[in-house]
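Lab manual, section 2.4: Encoding a predicted structure.

Procedure: take the sequence of the chain (592 residues), apply the prediction step described in section 2.3, and record the output as structure tokens. A sample record is shown.
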Amino acid sequence: MTERGTSPRRPRRRRRVRLRRALLGSLVVGSLVLSLAGWVGFRGWQARTHLVNAAGLAGALSAHLVSGDADRAQRVLAALQEQSAAARRATGDPGWRLGRQVPYAGANLAAVRQIAVAVDDLARQAFPALVRVDLGSLVPRDGRLDLAGVRAVSDELVKVDAAVQRTRSELAAVDADRLLRQVRLALGTLRGELDRLATMTSTAERAGRLLPPLLGADGPRRYLLVSQNSAELRATGGIFGAYAVIEANKGRVRMGAQGSGASLGMSTDPLAIPAEVRALWGALPGMYPADVNLSPHFPTAAALFGEMYRRHSGETVDGVLAVDPVVLSHLLVATGPVRVPGGVSLSAENAVRTLLGDTYQRVTDPAEQDAFFAAAAAAVFDVLFTRKVPPGGFMTALSRSIQDRRILFWSARPEEQRTFGDSRIAGTLPEQDTVPTVGVFLNDGSGAKLGYYLRQTADLVIGDCQSDRRRELRLRVTIRSTAPASGLSRSVLGLAMAGDPYTIRTLVSVHGPAGGAVLDVHLDGARTPVATGTERRRQVATVNVEVGPGESRTLEIPLLTGPTDSGTAELWLTPTATPWTTHVVTAPSCSQ
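Recorded output:
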């Protein structure tokens, strides 16, 4: 019997009412969430479309800027800004902002928003200044550069670099740990592109500031222009074969005395060299002009060569600028063919072959070879500084050459040298890595001019993360000889230090990542003798590799990085007559 005033049906009705209310509430909330998700998904699709379009336009803009087509660059910039602004709007409406408060999904929406903002900031704050830059002011006219024009370019580059560095810092602060794979990959890709862009804009900004004083705005300057002869390889590119004195005053540049590196002679009183370099190469870099760059550290090589020149001539220089025949071929694309005394025409297509191959077969006397190389350098220099060269072609040649580390510069003034830092043009393998960096550097051990016949590949695979955040890398280097088995002149075969005059002996030095290690070395599958040392916080392993005509040899080297979150790595390679074939297999970052 129940108590008075109560009914067994009422609690059940109240429970049903509460259940109906809960279900109704769930349906309402669910409908709102689904609507929000659908709206955010739609806006996300729109944002992705705009960002993909913006990426394509950014590539086109870069091409037009380098080619000097200002009108097309301006039109592409306008389209790029339209796409980047649309992506920013798509990720900035109330629905998107509300979605950013949702656990887990919110982090992804916030990251996409950051990507859209970054692209739009670049389109509106950095790229317009690049379009305004007058590349023509960076091209010599009538033997001089317009210093006022250079300073105007420098002012614009300051704005560009500030915008790029600011955007880079903002994206670096985004936490990638909780992001979806697609968003994480997009963020990583943009970060990588920004890192490369930031490196270029920083280098350009520094160069813009330094160019006026380097060109004699504050008083005359004298430099050594050296040609690295890739037919006889050295770590930075090739032996310092020929040199010329370049004089700069108030923007006017002229070529002075010329000579060969060999004419400086052996230093009977060897120059002081860094202890690490001495441990690896003995006293050779401080004794012979051809050996100053056995180490890949260009400032060391340039300072040694400059001092050898001072001892020989009694004259001090303000710096050393190094180029190679491939740089010349890039410049000849812009200038057109150049006639050289002796009836030879140098063009973009034949310059490397002529200077590194044919000349040694055609001209056997070393003095006549030196005279031809000097005449070729003078002819190209004269054309470059007197002929009207299209700014786009000129800048394309410079950009491509600097990117490949074929143009290197060292200033004898410490305050100027510090400004270049670890940029590509400085030729300094950094002591600390932003991403793991592996160096593969080649030094000829044949005493010959057979480097022209070498072909090289380098493959790098990024391994798994270890508990201490280190990674194992797997490096594979293959060297192949295309030299004939007979018919080469004594000028090419040289000292034949490998025994067989047609066998190319190459000393391959692998510089491990900063703070890491070179674990082992195998040549054609078998362990091989290795000389070891350290340079600039990097373990170095050097192997003698001998390759006969038509043969190839393969090195396999496991390496260990220092602690890193990066899933990629960079290769630094000796610039050679024929470019390397490279492949880097990346992996997820250690934080993913």
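Check your result against the sample. The two ends are 66 Å apart (CA to CA).
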